[in-house]
Amino acid sequence: MRLQSQVLISSDIEGTIAALKALRQKEQFVEIVKLDPKDDAFKVEDARLAIEKAYMASEATTVIILAAKSFSPIVQNKLLKVIEEPPPKKEFILITPSKATILATIRSRLPVNVLSEEIDEESFGLDVSQLSLSTVYAFVQEHKRTDAKTMKRIVERISKEAMRSGRFNLDEKTLTLFSDSFVALDVGSPPQFVLNTLLLKLLARKKR
């Protein structure tokens, strides 16, 4: 782990921040951390604050830590320019538990390092590599009463399996499916509808 611009995927956000601080020599730290269970999403106003902090003059290198359970596409796009062209002596470190929510545009500009995974590796009843209309239907029916929190874990697992399988055309449009699913769940869309939409769109991107 280094004090340089990157995305860190970690289920232990507080522990990761502590580990980063242990590496400090002469660097200054700015932290914008959203961990309150009632307010754990990074918002547009938080992004504006981060940008404001980035343009404050400093003699020493400033490490700007942005940590939250989720970063919406709107927030990430807001941060994109300052991440792409950071002011002198500024390093951005984003910390979040879910790799699937990080947009391809951010991934192309910052290295992504996975420190820990929140999703267990046990079978969850769907072979993503063999996705078909019948398996989609059966899996969606199985999760008719699954809540939004659990559905986020399922979406994360599906995204991971899709990437591992090599059976899908994982261009930027496809990767956006996963982040869009998280956003839909955050704004109250029915979990079953989100799951069905994701799987059908992913099935359409399956290599023939």
Notes on the structure:
The protein is α/β, with parallel strands linked by helices and 208 residues long. It folds into two domains: 109 residues, 3-Layer(aba) Sandwich (Rossmann fold); 77 residues, no CATH class. It has eight helices and seven strands; from the N terminus they run βαββαββαβαβαααα. Strands 2-4-6-1-7 form a five-stranded parallel beta sheet, with helices on both faces. About 3% of the residues have low confidence.
CATH-level-4 superfamily name of the largest domain: P-loop containing nucleotide triphosphate hydrolases
Q: What is the typical, i.e. mean, pLDDT? A: 88
Q: Structural class of the secondary elements?
A: alpha/beta
Helix content: 40-55%
Largest sheet: 5 strands, parallel
Q: Count of helices?
A: 8
Widest β-sheet, arrangement of strands: 2-4-6-1-7
In short, what is this structure?
This protein is an alpha/beta fold.
Topology record:
Elements: E1 6-9, H1 13-21, E2 28-34, E3 41-42, H2 44-54, E4 62-68, E5 70-71, H3 73-84, E6 90-96, H4 104-107, E7 112-114, H5 133-142, H6 148-165, H7 172-186, H8 191-204
Parallel strand pairs: 1-6, 1-7, 2-4, 3-5, 4-6
Question: What attributes characterize this protein structure?
Answer:
single chain, 208 residues, alpha/beta, Rossmann fold, two-stranded parallel sheet
